[in-house]
Specification:
31 strands; elongated; 6-stranded antiparallel beta barrel; 43% strand
């Protein structure tokens, strides 16, 4: 049986994160290698790479040195979205795929904000600037969640066009609320609601958020019904834990438990006292399925309000201040007011861990950014300062030469080296070297300390015969005697090549540092 499924973008994030974690905890040994000192057919147009094994053999044949990637060299990256006035940004929504949507912004103050509400698709004209943990509403009606600030050092080290390095704000993460409802989305406004209901004159309509979130249900009442519809409720136990500042018009639900389960279809408003007790309950939506007797007064941890126009249509909704709730994975909105046609409102639930708790997941950080410096002749001349290179290779878990032991050194020489004496003339870089006894042919990469030639084999310029202790000459006329042959520090063709980049030549000198930046997209 063949089944089709949608691959979660989270898988991309997890793959990038696991790669970075494997470097951090040293469970994986990543190395960046350089090579190809000999020119391309056209140095201005390096050839494209492919996924063939032949390309991997080529990379190994002309690789001269490699450097291990450590935790400071890598960071997660996410797509950059600059805040620009006049732009309509997408808003966070738990019911749609946000992968390619611009639902967050990066400001010129190097701060990242997630858009919780775009004020019904309005243009953003007020840049968010707050750095507090709460959700802030700007003058244009947008709601923003501050996520973190990208440090100057991260931007300098991991600058890549269109991508930003991930950072973390421990305070913001610790203040996140799991399963909060910070935004209500109005799908349709219904009809027949009280006219001109407004929060400005306290005539707004309460909205109860029903679901599996946290609630207060310590108060009890006795209900009077008619045909299963609740007509009134008398508080018999005021309970505790309700809003402690005396409040009116708080939305509540009436829950009655019977042998066939709980009935939760009646709703009303309550008044609370100074110590968080229920004083009175007014039934507005009587529901169905009730009987005379005891019931529970339920206050959801999340509730909101609605406003209507002169035609009794809901035009504006919002979550009440400080009442975003927690613990929701399922949520439904009920407007506690009589109507002809019910409005359709969708509560938007936060990510599993809460907004800001896991920014790399929330912002779809699917890039592994790598930045590595090759400084001078580091690694005791592992890296040439006499020649250029044209190829960059990323490989995982190569072995120490002649073993099956993982290499761990920070730098490694990847080529054989000829120790020479009786030198006459000059062995120039890219000089072809000839073994006078063996017939071996090699391509000189560099002359180290005046008496060591590191060489490579190129299938178009050299052969596969090994040098031996013998006399050598070069195409330019230099001669010398080989006194010792040094093995490379890494086992050729070991490990796995993950990435090959052919490029225009980069010349190396003893006074410069090359910075290699790689972006791995998952």
């Amino acid at each position: 049986m063949v089944t089709k499924s949608s691959i979660s973008t989270k898988l991309s994030y997890l793959n990038a994160k696991r790669l970075i974690d494997s470097v951090s905890n040293q469970s994986s040994n990543l190395y960046v290698g350089i090579g190809r000192s000999q020119p391309w057919g056209n140095d201005a147009l390096p050839p494209d790479t492919d996924n063939s094994l032949d390309s991997e053999y080529d990379a190994w044949r002309d690789m001269t040195a490699m450097k291990r990637v450590i935790s400071q060299d890598m960071v997660l990256g996410f797509r950059r979205v600059d805040w620009t006035t006049g732009t309509v940004y997408a808003e966070y929504d738990d019911a749609i795929d946000l992968t390619e949507l611009d639902f967050y912004v990066y400001t010129n103050e190097k701060k990242v904000y997630k858009c919780i509400s775009n004020n019904n698709g309005s243009q953003s004209t007020s840049k968010p600037t707050h750095v507090t943990s709460g959700i802030n509403t700007t003058l244009d009606g947008y709601k923003w969640k501050f996520m973190f600030t990208v440090s100057d050092s991260l931007i300098r080290k991991f600058f890549v066009t269109g991508i930003l390095p991930m950072n973390n704000d421990e305070f913001i993460e610790s203040e996140s609320i799991r399963g909060s409802v910070d935004h209500l989305k109005l799908i349709s406004g219904g009809g027949g609601y009280p006219l001109n209901a407004s929060i400005d004159d306290d005539t707004d309509l309460p909205i109860f958020i029903k679901g599996d979130g946290n609630e207060v249900s310590t108060a009890r009442c006795t209900i009077v019904t008619s045909g299963g519809v609740v007509s009134s409720a008398l508080v018999t136990d005021s309970g505790t834990g309700y809003p402690s500042a005396p409040e009116i018009n708080i939305p509540v639900m009436i829950r009655q438990v019977s042998a066939s389960g709980a009935v939760e279809t009646a709703f009303g408003t309550a008044t609370t006292g100074a110590v968080g007790q229920i004083l009175t309950v007014q039934i507005i939506l009587g529901g169905t399925g009730y009987t005379d007797g005891p019931a529970i007064i339920v206050l959801s941890s999340c509730y909101g309000y609605a406003e209507t126009n002169e035609n009794g249509i809901i035009t504006n909704i919002d979550v009440s201040t400080g009442r975003s709730g927690s613990g929701f994975a399922i949520a439904k909105a009920v407007v506690i007011a009589n109507s002809i046609t019910s409005a359709v409102i969708r509560p938007i639930i936060s990510p599993f861990r809460g907004h800001g708790a896991s920014p790399e997941r929330e912002l779809y950080a699917r890039y592994a950014l790598m930045n590595l410096n090759f400084a001078y002749n580091e690694g005791q001349d592992d890296f040439t300062v006499q020649n250029d290179f044209r190829r960059i290779v990323l490989l995982d878990s190569p072995f120490i030469y002649g073993t099956s032991t993982l290499a761990t050194a920070r730098t490694l020489n990847a080529k054989n080296t000829l120790v020479i004496s009786d030198i006459s003339g000059t062995f120039d870089e890219d000089d072809i070297i000839y073994g006078q006894t063996s017939g071996a042919i090699g391509l000189n990469v560099d002359l180290i300390n005046g008496n060591k030639i590191r060489y490579i084999r190129d299938e178009t310029l050299t052969n596969n015969i090994d040098f031996q202790i013998e006399s050598i000459s070069s195409e330019s006329g230099a001669t010398a005697t080989i006194t010792q042959i040094l093995n490379p520090e890494v086992q050729p063709y070991s490990g796995d090549i993950l990435f090959i980049n052919n490029r225009t030549p980069i010349d190396r000198t003893s006074e410069q540092i090359e910075t290699i930046t790689l972006v791995l997209e998952y």
